[in-house]
Amino acid sequence: MNRPWTLASSVAGAVIVALDGTALTVAQPSLQRDLSASFTEVQWTSTAYLVTVASLLVFAGRLGDRYGQWRVFGLGMLGFGAASAGIAAAPGVGWVIVLRAVQGVFGALAQPATLGVLRAAYPPDRLASPLAVRTAAIGLAAAAGPLVGGALVTGPGWRAVFLVNVVPALVFGLPALARRDRRPAPARTPLDLPGAALLAVTLACLVYAVTARPVSGAGLAAAALTAVVWVRHERRAASPLLPPELLGARTAGAALGILVAVSASLFGTLFIATYVLQRRLGLDAFHSALRSLPLAVLMVLSAALCPAALRRWGARRVTAAAAAALALGVVLLSRTTAPAGLGLAFALLGAGFGTVMVAATQVVVRAAEVRTAGVAGGVQQTALNVGPAVGVAAAAALLGTGTGAALLVLAAVAALAVPGARLLPGPAAAASRTPAPHAPVPAGDPERR
Predict the structure, then answer these.
(1) Fewer CB within a 10 Å sphere, N or C end of the chain?
(2) pTM beyond cutoff 0.85
(3) Number of C-alpha atoms within 13 angstroms, CB side, residue 50?
(4) CATH fold group of domain 243-440
(5) Would you tell me which CATH number, out of the four given (3.40.1350.10, 3.40.718.10, 1.20.1250.20, 1.10.940.10), belongs to the domain 1-178?
C-alpha cells in the first residue's frame, strides 16, 4: 500500500475512535431513557470501554510487531465496526456495556497499529508531517463529535451514533486484512504473556480506580501492587513485553511523561470548564461548545504548523513553549469568565495540546525501530488514555476547593512538562539524525526493506 493510503488508514482509525467517544457523550442521556438504564449503568458504557482498551494497548502493539501491523489493524477495524453494529441493535443496556468492552478490545488492536504503519512507511525524519495530519484530524473529530452526535440523536436516534462507524471500518479494514506483507518475516520472539497479563491488570485497576466515583482506594492499591510485580518480572524476563531499547531511551521516557502530564491537565481542565460554563454562566450545551470552539480550531492549526517548527527549533524548545502555553491557558481560565478571555484561554489550550501531541508522539515513535513500532504506538496510546483518566479524577476531587484553585493545580501539572522537555532532542539532533536501518526505501512498496 502506498503512503497516501497508509496515512488515510491511520487517520481513519484514529478518527473513528475519537468521533465515537465524543458522540457517545451526547447520546448517553437518550440511551438512558430509551433503555430505562440507571446512571451507574450509563457510566459503565464508558468505563467498560476505557478499562478494556487501556489494559490491552501495549500487548496489542506487540501483536502488531509480531504478526504484522496491517493484519492487526484490519482485524481491529472490522471488529470495532462489528461491535458498533451490535451496540446499535442492542436490546438492553447490559448488552451495550458488554459490547462496549468488546469494542475496547478491537480498539486496542487498531490504535497502536495506526502509528505502527506510519513508522514503517515513513523514515524518521519525515514522520512529523503525517503525525500532524493525524493529530489535526483527531482535533476535527473531537470538535465534530458533539455536533454529529447531537444531529443523529435528534434525528434517527442514539443507535445511529454507532452505525456511523460501520462503513469506514469496512472501507479501511478489509483492504488492510487482505494485504500481503512483502517484508521478510520478523523473528518470532516470545510474546511475554505473563508480562502482558500483569500490565493489563495494572492498567485496568488504575483506570477503573480513577474513573470510579469516588476514586477507588482498593483499585489504586491493586494497581500499585501489580505494577511492582510487573516491573520485577520485566527485569528478569528473557523477552520482556516492552523492549529495553524503548524503555531505556531517555527521550522516549520524557516524551511519554509529557503526554501524560499535558493530557491530564487538559482533560481535567475541560471537566471543570463544563461547570464554569454551564453552572456559573448558565450556558446550555450548545453555547458552551461554541465558547470552547477556539480549542479545536487552534489544535488543528498548531498541528499543521508543528512540523515546520520542529525542523527549525527542535522538539525540546517547541514542546516546552507549547506546554507553557497550555499552562497559561489553564491559569487564564481560572481568572476570567469574559467571552474574550475564555476564547483566548481555549485557544491557548488547543495550541499547546496540538503542538505537544505532534512533537512528543514523533519523539516516541521515531525512537523505536520498525520492528517495535507497534509497542511504541501502544505505549503512546496508553499514556493518552491514562493521562485524561487521572486528570478528570483529580479535577473531580479538587472541585470542592473551588474551580479557581482546582484549575491552578492543573496548570501546575501542565507546567511540569516544561522542565521535562529539556530531555527531548534539539534542532541539531533532529537535523543530523538519519533514517534507521529498518526504515523503508522511498521507491516501490512503502514497507519493502
Answers:
(1) C
(2) no
(3) 23
(4) Growth Hormone; Chain: A; (1.20.1250)
(5) 1.20.1250.20
